Prior knowledge:
Blueprint: E1 2-10, H1 14-23, E2 29-32, H2 41-44, E3 49-50, H3 59-69, H4 76-84, H5 86-95, E4 111-112, E5 122-123, H6 129-142, E6 147-150, E7 153-158, H7 162-165, E8 179-184, E9 189-200, H8 221-229, E10 233-234, E11 239-246, H9 258-262, E12 266-268, H10 289-303, E13 308-311, H11 317-323, H12 325-335, E14 344-353, E15 356-358, E16 370-372, E17 377-378, H13 391-406, H14 434-450, H15 457-480, H16 485-506, E18 530-531
Parallel strand pairs: 1-2, 1-9, 2-6, 9-16, 15-17
Antiparallel strand pairs: 3-5, 4-5, 7-8, 8-9, 10-15, 10-18, 11-14, 12-13, 13-14
Amino acid sequence: MNLQTDFLIIGSGIAGLSLALKASAKGKVTVVTKKHKKDSNTNYAQGGIAAVLSGTDSFKSHKKDTENAGAGLCKTEVVELIVKNGPKVIQDLIDWGVQFTQENNSENYDLGREGGHSQNRVIHADDLTGKEIERALVSSCQEDPNIEILEDHFAFDLLTEYHLNGLEGFNKNEINCFGAYVWDTKNSVVKIYRAKFTILATGGMGRVYQHTTNPPIATGDGVAIAYRAGAKVANLEFMQFHPTTLYAPGKPTFLISEAVRGHGGKLRTTDKKTFMRDYSPNQKSLAPRDIVARAIDAELKKRGDEFVYLDVTHLAPDKTKSKFPNIWRTCKNYLNIDITKEMIPVVPSAHYQCGGIITNLKGETNINRLYACGEVACTGLHGANRLASNSLLEAIVMSEAISQEILTKNLNDYSLPLFKEWDEEGTVTAEELVLIAHNVTEIQTLMWDYVGIVRSNQKLARASKRIELIKKEIKAFYERTKLNTELLEVRNLVACADLIVRCAEMRTESRGLNYNTDYPKMNSEKKDSVIWRFE
């Protein structure tokens, strides 16, 4: 089934939907998302968006904070572009109907402060910023006749010359993207979506790990399909572990926003002693996430505890409840604790992938007509560690950069070849999905144990060896089995796990989010860990 659109956007978070709203002025936009249109990492974001919106703040200060967190790997020109465009994209969101929290009895927006920031610059919608942004963007897209959002559609491979001619005549240095193979999960049919431009906005890969703040859909689909098509990826060893997720065994993972520490929350051991002074004497509980996550990890291992506490009981109860209503409510529902009176048990969890598909300042990848933005991309903004609340900022600024680029194109200049229908001959229906479930569990467990907050060469070698075996198992299963969502996801998960380990093995130093006990110091050489399928 060959279908056609002008702009194929894969993913329905802030990056994909904001780009759809801009691209619709030029042509037909098709947004595909493998679950519900509101299922995205954006929807789970609590803290807010970092931007220079106060007269006491400055672009210079925001840039400095970003680069300090990035541990020497931030690209200056990217940081400057994204920081300087912050106020503009915030206004775009307001124009689309996002309702940010205002100060009491004031028209000014309430600006929070999070770890690593030297100023209050995080604009938010209470503690449900992502949900509010997603609501407004979905509503605006639904009102646009040029935008079609397809739920329950899973893009599982990109269309390139390889799918026309195989390897014969395939020029690995001049690859073009013509769209994607899309699995209609409800009707169990493969659709061929041809597009003049394809944009990956699929979010992250937190589900590679056993413990994550990410939703179930975050299986690294964008990185996996781009890499298979020949896109270059980099810095995947820099997985950010959020220091504070609610410790509530048996309950869905729930993030305790960085803004709680910005509000004055203090980290304590189970015997109620503060400990962050030992790891970051100046910033203490407001240190960047990599420092805080390693500190908590060290305390848990040293003491044999399963969690530490985040304490806000010393703060004004009414202000805490009004500032964090969803966190207060969830802690009450999950653990029956009132956070204004009782401390919050927290543990680190995989949260954000700082690396991804390499793009330039226009969002272009090394594959022609393929763009990427948001968490799936590696622009160079985050370097070795993302500054809190820079993620939504990057996503919308880079979607704006892509829109400016594609809106200059003449759509008539781009032709689209026809592709053969998907052939399932020789495959059988998977009768034992338990085999896939076991593969997923094994990937997540070994990544958590061996490629987590603290790594070593021995752990990486063990992970690499086992992942290689799982890759072969899944490849064989994929080739003989009819498509299903679980199979497509585990195929992408193992691809991303493999790429994370390979990047980590290339990083013979400890920098930012990559801490290797065999290389406890940083090297003087500052370089990205780049992997390309056709090397």
